[in-house]
Amino acid sequence: MLDARLELRRGSFRLSVDFSVGTGPVLVTGPNGAGKTTLLLGVLGAVRPTSGRLVLFGEVLFDSAAHVSLPVEERHVAYVPQDSGLFPHLSVRDNVGFGLFRLAPDARAARVEAALAQLGATALAERRPSNLSGGERQRVALARALAMKPRALLLDEPLASLDAPSRVRFRDFLAEHLRRLDVPALVVTHEPEDARVLGGEMLVLEAGHVAERGHVEALRESPVSAFSRAFWAQS
Amino acid sequence: MSRRSFQRSLSAALPLFAAGLLLAFLVVPVVALVLSTGLSEALSGLSNPLAISALGLSLLTTTCSLLVVLLLGTSLAWQLARRTGRGWRAVATLVQLPIVIPPAVSGLALLLAFGRRGLLGPWLERAGIGLPFTTAAVVLAEVFVSAPFYVQAAAASFRRLDPSLLLVARSLGAGPARTFFRVAVPLSLPGLTTGAALSWSRALGEFGATLMFAGNLQGRTQTLPLAIYTAMESDLGAAKAMSLVLVVVAFGLLLLVGRRAQSFLGGEGARRAA
């Protein structure tokens, strides 16, 4: 579904990855500076790779040889940054409807209500992001991302900004929604417990390369790299 | 009192005395202006034809110059905030130049650029455009001196935007224009309005560049500050009344955006410290 072969430079850092992933959650982990966020930004189109090819459900998003590079807004890839990235000047309802401006007003309203209901955020619709808890913010951000019916989902450490109780609650909630997805979802995480609960495929990035990949459970059973051993030893 | 404690109280009192002296110096002239102008004198001064036409002209030209500054300045501020590199840093410095150039020099420079014998004069003449000593020249002079205040405040405001919000907007299908108008502008609005207010008040008080480039022609180029200068010789009451109008407007603006304006004019460091 998502075929990524990307070479990317940011200052002295070099990311070089080559992988294909299917639908559902794909966890991305690795030490600080391994290139996790850079990988997301490369797929999103916010950072231009020096070379490579990126194909999502058969559509070429980037191809250096063919000089193709779709701008961010044409990729249909939803992105949720670490702090949820809600627009502070808009209500929850307007945040969720932000990406639906091409729909007719009725269709837009229906899609927004459906997304809010799906994520259990209907009661929050009139609130401003500043009046939401961390978990609520992430739920609304996810509702906004899913409302646009993206072809891929990029979540940058969706649990990192939450306190312990809301982290546990939102983690289960996120796991349930990610499992139902019919598009690839790259999820950056630093926590073994988050990885275990979210499940699915896992990519371990080290120094800009995919050092290990496999199912979360398989990697947990027999970690290969030094980072992986240390990562699972935390749990 | 021992000698040491006397020295201590003196060293505490001296800075306060110095501060009070300057404060008094700043406030007394404004107080003198207000006290010396009675309400009836102010009203009769404002009914002077000189004052009426200057008020109208100032309103017209500062509105025009503000529109030009907003239209072109917002775009320049956005570029300055988004682009890095030595070239753009040089542009940022260049934009501030009119703030430090003496107004009379600005007027002369405008004349040398757009005057009949100026740099662009022959082209303008061929196009049938004669700028010097017209109302359009007043607007140009005001744009020249006031634009930097807006551009500086707007660029500072744009720089403070969280880049991930702009990225999220793009990922939700919004192109650069939609992202700019629906996310960047609303989130920067406090800074943009402060910049606009600062810029407008600078345009309203503009004197030197206007005098040099547009002259002092009643009804055509004679704005409030020029009319005050002219009225000083013939009708002091009118001069005082017009001055009062400017003081009241300035005070209103200060109440509206004063604290925010300080943070913008104070630069990046002052804001962080605030």
What report would you give on this structure?
The complex is a heterodimer of chains A (235) and B (274). Chain A has 235 residues and is α/β, with parallel strands linked by helices. Chain A has a domain of 62 residues. Chain A is 34% helix and 27% strand. In chain A, the strands form 2 sheets. Chain A has a 6-stranded mixed beta sheet, sandwiched between helices. In chain A, strands 2-1-4-5-6 form a 5-stranded antiparallel beta sheet, with helices on one face. In chain A, a hairpin with a 2-residue loop joins strand 1 and strand 2. Chain B has 14 helices and no strands. The C terminus of chain B is likely disordered. By secondary structure, chain B is mainly α. Chain B folds into 2 domains: 36 residues; 233 residues, Orthogonal Bundle (MetI-like fold), CATH 1.10.3720.10. The two termini of chain B are 40 Å apart. Chains A and B meet through strand 7 of A and helix 9 and helix 10 of B.
Radius of gyration of chain B: 23 Å
Radius of gyration of chain A: 18 Å
* N-to-C SSE string of chain A, H for helix and E for strand: EEEHEEEEHHHEHEHEEHH
Order of helices and strands of chain B: HHHHHHHHHHHHHH
Q: Major sheet of chain B, described briefly? A: none
β-strand percent of chain B reads: under 5%
What order do the helices and strands come in, and which of them pair?
The complex is a heterodimer of chains A (235) and B (274).
Chain A: E1 2-10, E2 13-21, E3 24-29, H1 36-44, E4 51-56, E5 59-63, E6 68-69, E7 77-80, H2 92-97, H3 105-118, H4 134-147, E8 152-156, H5 164-179, E9 184-188, H6 192-198, E10 201-206, E11 209-215, H7 216-221, H8 226-233
Chain B: H1 3-36, H2 39-46, H3 49-82, H4 86-95, H5 97-100, H6 103-114, H7 121-126, H8 135-159, H9 163-171, H10 176-204, H11 208-214, H12 224-234, H13 236-265, H14 267-273
Helix pairs in contact in B: 1-13, 2-13, 3-8, 3-10, 3-12, 6-8, 6-11, 8-10, 8-11, 9-10, 10-13, 12-13
Main attributes of the structure:
heterodimer, A: 235 residues, alpha/beta, B: 274 residues, mainly alpha, MetI-like fold, 2 domains, 0% strand, globular
